[in-house]
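Onboarding guide, step 5: your first structure request.
Type a short instruction followed by the sequence, for example:

Predict the 3D structure of this protein.
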Amino acid sequence: MSKQYVSASKIAQFLYCPFTFELAAAGYEPVEPHLPAVATGIAFHTAFRYMWFDVSLEEAVKAAIDVTYITMGHEIDKSERDALLRRVKAIPHWLLDADQVEVKVEKEIPGTDIVITGYMDAVVGDKVVDLKAVGKIKPELPPTYQIQAQIYMYASDKNKASFIMIDPIGRVADFEVDRMPEETVGQMMEYFARSMTQEYRPPSGLTNFACGKCSFQHVCPFYKLLKQTPKRR
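The system replies with structure tokens like these:
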């Protein structure tokens, strides 16, 4: 029996918006209307990995900016550099002593042909850690991130997950998620994986913010409709 490999990032994309998942699967090329935000996120994670290898903060940031320019062709401007520096300075010190960083995971769902794959930012003891460079700290962890946390814990056999959000000012929010029963998560992952291969997609819970950042808005037939902001009477 051939295996169906499904990455955690693909599941997250599918849950975030089935429309973009469908457009990508159909072969439409994405564009990045918010390339600076994407580049900053990549630079942030790159700087973290350098610092984990005991590179100084200043050198890690410089190297991360250079790597981001080489890989993405985007030159980070002064305001983005300043925000990157504040974010990197705000990374909790205990995370720099993580057991592992950029950890690849792969786990087959028992009784199925589905294999869940992905990369975790870090592992600290019995905890999975995911770093997020966000534009704004939210009061609670979004549902898609909570599902990502369950995927990572399921695939790595860890019992806790921590999502660390850091905004441009350097403010930090740490959301901890406990692991759900393995059978429940396995059934949930199987449902998502099967749904991704169906002709009809479940409805999306998009927000105006999500549509504004979407890389497929130039070809999405739903963009103008979903982007509307209803006026309060």
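Each response can be followed by summary notes, for example: Residues 4-16+32-185 form a domain with the Lambda Exonuclease; Chain A fold (CATH 3.90.320).
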